[in-house]
Design brief:
Helix content is about 45%, strand content about 10%. It is globular, with a radius of gyration of 20 Å. The relative contact order is 0.12. The chain is α/β, with parallel strands linked by helices. The chain has two domains: about 80 residues, DNA polymerase beta, N-terminal domain-like (DNA polymerase, domain 1); about 240 residues, Metal-dependent hydrolases (TIM Barrel). Strands 1-2-3-4-5-6 form a six-stranded parallel β-sheet.
């Protein structure tokens, strides 16, 4: 068994059981540490010398690299059962991520680092979605800066070569009238457009519903990002109120994907709305909303949520190969 896959699988099964995020992160960190190790058996005493590897993860690495199923993994598999096994296969079906940020807006890493991290995880593609101009607190991209970023994305793809594609995109503010916060011509040039509400989140349900429905009907919008805007950690923030039936019916009608946002403080939409969107026939994008390379690991939690309500890979655009994704967006 590959030690990296064993560690990732353990992290996923712990997540499936709602274990502490710190415990989950320890296994992802160890997987990153061992990822570039040469093939062959690795002794636990040697593994524990690696940065980010502790005694428990070192034992997993040693057993897996010797060709055995690690004891820790076998125990978790026995405890979690076939439902978690099916969900893990959904994780393995993942091909990309439609929502990540770089230091061009409020991310902490260069876009090259985000692309390399996505490729190292086995993604075939990832979409760079830095913020739009109105979100000045996040250093949103003016039209001129977005044009420069398009050139930077092309340069990164030229360096990376075949096998992975960094797609151009934006997380575009949905303005109060439902319009998108960027020039039409530029939106038409982007590979993927995510639209999210970042202002007036406590509006009454009627204007918020109209705002979201108008955005969903915009032909440039591909993914409706973190639809309620809730925050579930710290002081928190309540979800926006809107007519979910109307919004998800619009998404189903237009083919706009509903984002399953994997940020631990968001987990948006909530479970009840996620089930409602699934019942409406919506497509979904399992996205990390990552602002740093290590946050790309969060995606498995979204696939776990999708699996719990019975969604298959056909409904999850982040499992689609690049050609199918581009055919869906109409930007070949």
């Amino acid at each position: 068994m590959d030690p990296v896959e064993a560690l990732r699988r353990i992290a996923f099964l712990l997540e499936w059981r709602d274990a502490s995020p710190y415990r989950v992160r320890a296994f992802h960190t160890a997987a990153d540490a061992i990822r570039d190790a040469p093939p062959g058996s690795i002794d636990a005493d040697e593994a524990v010398k690696l940065r980010g590897v502790g005694p428990v993860t070192a034992a997993v690495i040693a057993q897996a690299s010797a060709g055995a199923v690690p004891d820790y993994l076998a125990r978790l598999e026995a405890e979690t059962g076939p439902a978690a096994e099916a969900a893990w296969h959904l994780v393995l079906a993942g091909r990309g991520d439609c929502h990540l940020h770089s230091d061009w807006s409020d991310g902490g890493s260069p876009l090259e680092d985000m692309a390399e991290a996505a490729r190292a995880l086995g993604h075939q593609w990832a979409v760079l979605t830095d913020h739009s101009p109105q979100l000045t607190i996040a250093h949103g991209l003016s039209p001129d800066r977005l044009r420069l970023q398009l050139e930077a994305v092309a340069a990164v793809n030229a360096r990376l070569g075949p096998g992975f594609r960094l797609l151009s995109g934006i997380e575009c503010d949905i303005l109060e009238d439902g319009s998108l916060d960027q020039e039409e011509e530029l939106l038409g040039r982007l590979d993927v457009v995510v639209g999210s509400v970042h202002s007036k989140l406590r509006s009454d349900p009627e204007p918020m519903t109209a705002r979201l429905v108008a955005a969903v009907h915009n032909p440039h919008l591909d993914v409706l990002g973190h639809c309620t805007g809730r925050i579930i950690t710290g002081r928190g923030r309540p979800p926006s109120r809107f007519d979910a039936h109307a919004v998800f019916a619009a998404c189903a009608q237009t083919g706009t994907a509903v984002e399953i946002n994997c940020r631990p403080e968001r987990r948006d939409p909530p479970d009840d709305l996620l089930r409602q969107a699934a019942g409406a026939g919506c497509l979904f994008a399992v996205d990390t909303d990552a602002h740093a390379p290590e946050q790309l690991h969060w995606q498995s939690s979204g696939y776990a949520r999708a699996a719990r309500i019975g969604l298959g890979a056909d409904r999850l655009i982040t499992t689609w190969p690049l050609e199918k994704l581009r055919g869906w967006t109409g930007r070949l």
